[in-house]
Amino acid sequence: MKKALITGINGQDGSYLAEFLLDKDYDVHGIIKRNSIPENQTARIQHIYPVIKNNLYHADMCDMSSLLSVVQRVQPDEIYNLAAQSHVRVSFDQPIYTLDAIGRGTLNLLEVVRLTGATSKIYQASSSEMFGNSIDTDGFQRETTPMNPVSPYACAKLLAYNLIKCYRESYGLFAANGILFNHESPRRGTSFVTNKIVIGAVKIKKGLARNLALGNLDSTRDWGHAKDYVKIMWQLLQLDNPGDYVCATGQSHSVRELCDTTFRKLGMDYKEHVFQDPRFLRPAELNDLKGCTKKLAGVIDLNFDYTFDTMIDEMINYWMEKL
Fold first, then answer.
1. In this predicted structure, what is the pLDDT of residue 284?
2. Average pLDDT of the chain?
3. I want to staple 21 with a disulfide (CB 3.0 to 4.6 A). Which of 26, 71, 77, 86 is the partner?
4. Where are the beta strands (DSSP E) in the chain?
């Protein structure tokens, strides 16, 4: 039985990955950063909590000693580094913490593996935000596209990305970067635009709200489903050699189109309810993201279970019941 350690196991990706690995008969362990409201910490993994409750550990990516303790105790075959301060807009308000949690946190993890001589394979959740507004002439971003981040979050992710490459090349660690484009689900944080739009539309449909305030409606993103992406994470650690791969759907949609699709599915016109609020605009905007998966498709069987439409359908159905 393989052992897997997931940092940020209680996040969107961590919870889906834990389910996926349990289905593959892994011994799943996870790191959770302690906060003062423990009831909320395991909300996304409550349905599998009885199975993994003895394999959950409080640790902090900024505290190398706590990571060392967990890695020595678990001795994992695979480590999935999904922990982060993950909100781009918030990174402008908390740039130092964002850099520490993502950049220094990844370095701490790599040093723990290096110094202990562990043979763990490492997956790093890198981000399409690293590209900034760099786009190849065909409209896509790929592994060779210049990376010019436009937020503290993206800068921190680029540091972690380069550290993974550095330790792979310098010390021979099996360390892989998955450059994840946007991926959503009903478990996505409610402050992220996809769930914010779906929840807002459902509330308006149910008479619980009248309007929805958003930021930039014209930015485009390559949106996939988190379930599809965690499967890719696992596949990258099953390869003979580690590398850096774009993980995307290859299709992009604007925030305005997301609004239109969601409201239309609920029998409404978004133009009657959605307005732009300057509070939600970033100091530096990232306009367009669309990933090319040619390199990834050359090493794994790339099949997605969800489309843009079915992803939104699932999110709407979830919140129609939840609210």
1. 75
2. 96
3. 26
4. 3-7, 27-32, 56-58, 78-81, 121-127, 175-180, 183-184, 212-214, 220-221, 224-225, 244-247, 253-254, 274-276
Tokens coding 51: 């199975």
Residue 314 bears catalytic tag: no
Instruction: Please identify which of the residues 15, 78, 120, 129 carries the catalytic annotation.
Output: 129
Distance CA 213, CA 200 (A): 9
DSSP per-residue letters across 207-266: TS-S-EEES-SS-EE--EEHHHHHHHHHHHTTSSS--EEEE--S--EEHHHHHHHHHHHT
Of 264, 192, 186, 178, give the one whose Cα is nearest residue 221: 192
Of the listed 153, 161, 167, 245, which one is catalytic? 153
Q: Are 292 and 251 in contact (CB under 8 A)?
A: no
The pair of three-digit structure tokens given for residue 137, joined into one six-digit string? 């002439």
Cα 162 from chain centroid (whole Å): 18
Q: Residue 103 corresponds to which tokens in the numbers above?
A: 């950049």
Per the annotation, the verdict on 171 as an active-site residue is no
* 129 assigned to active site: yes
Claim: this prediction has a pTM higher than 0.90: yes
Cα–Cα dist 18/7, whole Å: 11
| pLDDT bracket for residue 281 (50, 70, 90) | confident
Q: Say if CB 81 and CB 161 are below 8 A apart.
A: no
Q: pLDDT tens across 282-320, in order?
A: 787 788 999 999 999 999 999 999 999 999 999 999 999
27 and 3 Cβ atoms separated by less than 8 Å: yes
Is residue 37 pLDDT above 80, yes or no?
A: no
DSSP 3-state assignment of 9? coil
pLDDT of residue 264: 98
What does the chain come to in residues? 323
Tell me which of 66, 127, 185, 252 is the catalytic residue.
127
Farthest-apart Cα atoms in the chain, separation: 60
Beta bridge partners of residue 274, listed in sequence order: 212
Amino acid at 13: D
